[in-house]
Amino acid sequence: MVVTSSAGRAALAVTVIGAVLAPASPALAADPPRVDLRADVNRDGRVDVTGATDTAGEDRWSTARGAVFLPNIDDDTKRCAVKGPGGKPLSDAALAACNDASDAVINGNGDLADLARVRSVPMAGLPATARGSVSVPAGGKRTRVFVKRPGGWALVTGTTRLTAAELRAGVEFGVESTDVVRDSAAVWDGRAVIRLTVTSGGVTASDDVTLRVAPLLTHHHLQRAQQVMVTKVPGTDEFARRQRAFVGGLAKEVSAAGIDKPLITFDAYQDIWAQDFVEPGYVSMTGPDGRRQAIRVMLRSAQPDREAGRELFEKLRGNGVGVVQVSGVRDSEEWTLNSMGNLETIPPYAHGGRSFPAGRIIMGERKDDGSKPARAMRTLLASQGMQDPLLLDTSWLHVGHVDEFVQFLPADTPRGWKIGIADPEAGLKLLRDAQRAGHGGARMFSVPDRKDAPAPKETIAQALASRWLVADNTMAARRIQANLDVLRRETGVTDAEIVRVPALYTRGTEQGERGDRVPRLTRLGAGAVPDAVDEYGQQKRLRERSGRAAGPGTVMTSAYVPGAVNGVLLGRDRYLAPRQWGPVIGGTDVFTAAVTAAYTRAGMRVSYIDDWDTYHLGMGEVHCGTNTLRDTSAAWWKP
Q: Which residues of 224-261 are buried (b: 16+ CB within 10 A; e: fewer)?
């Protein structure tokens, strides 16, 4: 608490327990008002104004202790427009400009629940002439304070005055932020200082509390899946019918996994890569009842020209759901690396003196040519101060996403999770073992022929004898091992905590008939690339960025057999993988059997869904085409 004379005499500074630091002037002999402002420093959902549980550290903030307030960026009453006059589309900036914090009122009880509480300790015996005011000396540009009064909640402004009666009774405030932290070094570190100033008998005293806006966090796989999202393509063409069949099959798998909420379908823009244009995240604090008060935050990919991200505002934003998009993305930053399939989260861990209680982000970069995800996105993620992004090398992948080779699986171990990793050496071994057993003439793929998409014709022997397959997978295994070494060094994971899942990769053609960069399996007897794959697949973007496709001497690959690690975790022990369509020997798909065995050993029940035509031929799999909303109830500050 700071105390000063309002009569122009020498300043007097007093500690919160009243210790005098400078000689008292006779004119200030009367006891100064004892101002005591408190917030939920211990994060139990209650502001303690009678005890001392919320006093220690009230002017500081750390991951473990300190008051938290929310960026109030949802739209609880659905008041934000999604179209302009005459039904014209709004600009991206206009869509993003509206949320609950974009006005200076409290929009109903849902909005009120998103405000952090700050309270003043009742000041008994204060004379009727005393007055109080509230200011925000730090973080004020992005912080809004409301005061509770008999007629309701009122915005605190520079002219707001608190009466002696209010101060004697104790005042309750609500605090919101108008945005997330975007650049903690250059713009705002998320901290706000709330100051209560009281003048009584010619003496002015004040007290501060420090809050920090809740970090925007991405989900990890120890958080239970609660709802699944997928794009649904309209139309009567063959691709649209198959894609809707995929959606129907996905709905059955989701239900079987015990998720009772229906699928959320994106319908407006026909971008089938639901994993790539959004990363679901959340912000949270402890509410008054001790439970987590959370806002889901849909983090739009740093791809301003990707229209599908608009549907996050148009369809998902609402009660308890907000959207964040970054600006300042450079044309020179590689488009595909900015897809959110290139962002995954290691579950919570502590190692080497560092702790990540909310998990840690991984993203792919192309070390061979120096290309990284957009700086604006990396800065935003790092500025949260919780999930310090770790970059892995995806130079060897056409699409360049981390979800193409690594995942994290819940496990009944002291750590609580294991790493699932694609294993090309295991994939080659399956083919070599089959050939040695006399099955070299078996077709490499058991996917049936379709009128518009003939199946590849190569046999196991032809695949092994091809010019590139063994070399490509030897290279892929080496690159994956290098990334695994990074993960082991950073997390402390041991060999026993690694689940190796058979996989095979293949380089794309350098130049197809139409310039397509597609998996070579579509060139070995499979005919031309289906028009739908070219339209909906990721090849189009790779062609647009073809000048940056690879560093010198780099071979880039994509999944040959559908990538099993590129599936979706539906429950703690329920995993949905892409159907393998591998060689069938003795009535058994050898890849399906091997993949099932790998996940079974890890304690997972695995099921399969066909994504060959809908996603695999477009250089993606089940995970690329889906997304999940996960539980937000965990306390992100607790180890």
A: bbebbbbbbbeeeebbbebbbebbebbbebbeebebee
Rounded Cα gap, residues 464 and 442, in angstroms: 12
DSSP states along 111-162: HHHTSEEEEEPP-TT--TT-EEEEEEEESGGGEEEEEEETTEEEE--TT--E
> The whole model's pTM is what?
0.92
Query: Residue for token digits 């032809």?
Result: 462
Sign of the torsion angle spanned by Cα atoms 372, 377, 383, 388? negative
Task: Name 118's bridge partners.
Answer: 39, 173
pLDDT classification of 538: cutoffs 50, 70, 90: low
Distance of alpha carbon 131 from alpha carbon 204, whole angstroms = 9
In the predicted structure, residue 633 carries a pLDDT above the cut 90: yes
Burial level of 129, CB count in 10 A (0-12/13-18/19+)? Answer: exposed
Q: Using CA of residue 429, residue 431, residue 434, residue 435, what is the dihedral sign?
A: negative
Its sign, for the CA torsion 216, 222, 225, 231, is: positive
Q: Which residue has the tokens 């932020």?
A: 177
Q: Which of 423, 413, 449, 469 is nearest to 595 (CA)?
A: 423
Write out the two tokens for 454.
């003939």
How many whole angstroms separate alpha carbon 344 and alpha carbon 362?
A: 5
C-alpha 394/C-alpha 405 separation (Å) is: 9
